[in-house]
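Researcher: We're teaching a course module on how sequence relates to structure. For the next exercise, students receive a sequence and then see the predicted structure as tokens, so they can try to spot secondary structure elements on their own. Here is the exercise chain.
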Amino acid sequence: MSTNPATVVYGADAVEKTSEVPNEPRVVSMVTTRIVDRLERPQIESEIRSVVECEIERFEGARVRDFVPILVERRVRSSLRALAHAN
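Model: And here is the predicted structure for the students to work with:
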């Protein structure tokens, strides 16, 4: 058995996990598009993209990366709601 902390063992097979979000540029684009579409404000797409990229960086050291896209989307939407209520 491997001593690599990034290895997940299922039965006799070991599967290497990376510390990166799979296809990160696609994830950034997908999350950004969903948020912008929901807000119906395409003029702020570049600002939303920047926030999404920053949030993805927060999860850089996470061992489990599968849920990063949904966690990022939730954090960005929560931040936007807080800003809306502050104004």
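Model: If you want an answer key for the exercise: Residues 1-19 have pLDDT under 50 and may be disordered. Helices lie at 24-39, 45-58, 68-86.
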